[in-house]
Each structure stands twice: as C-alpha cells, then as structure tokens.
Input
Amino acid sequence: MPAILLVDHGSRRDEANAQLDQLALRVRAARPDLEVRCAHLEIAAPSVAEALDAYAAEGVREVLIHPFFLAPGRHTSEDLPRLAREAAERNPGLRVRLGAVLGVDDVVTQAVLARIDAGLRSGD
Output
C-alpha cells in the first residue's frame, strides 16, 4: 500500500494550511490502513520535496500524491510531476505517483450543492 501525500498550494494564512491538516485527520480516520501526510507547493512547510524525502528516509517505497486542487493547471500538470521525478531521482527505489485533481465529479457537485443550500438557508 503506498503512503499518501496530500498536497495543496500553501498559504501565508495558518488557517488555510490547517484545513489540509484537518483533511488528513479525516482521511486517516476513514482509512486507518493508510499513512497520510500533508505538504504544500509554496509558502508553507513542509514542502513537497521535504515530505517525499522524509517518507524515503523512513523506508517508504511508494507514495501517491493526492493534489487537493479543484482543477488541473500548471501546478498539477508541471510542478507536481517535476517534484515527483526529482524526488525519485534523489531517492533511488522511491516510486511517486500522482493522483487526479478533484475536478468536476458527482461527489464534488454534491459538496457544492450542499454549500449553496447552506448559503441560501443562512440568509446572508
């Protein structure tokens, strides 16, 4: 079973970065069989490179990066593949795979509808 690395953009705002930590807690609770950690592409620590190197130093041989992004873009099509490749080059025997962005999916649509409904109910 590969280790999981949840990756977001990263922010100067601690509360924004803390959301990825909250997501990791929920993923761990739902899937206790998975080793799950977080990293940020920019601004906040740990960086993707630091997190991948830490996994490798602990003997992890395979990591699945889950990009916590709504849509594909430069970060998911260029930056993450480059960082994955560089980590594998630095850490022989480490395999890094990339998962898909959240995208337009039925589950995402349901989450958006739930937020719309909550906004409509709030009256703000």
User: Anything to note?
Assistant: The chain has a mean pLDDT of 95. The chain has one domain: 3-122. Residues 67 and 76 are 7 Å apart (CA to CA). The radius of gyration is 16 Å.
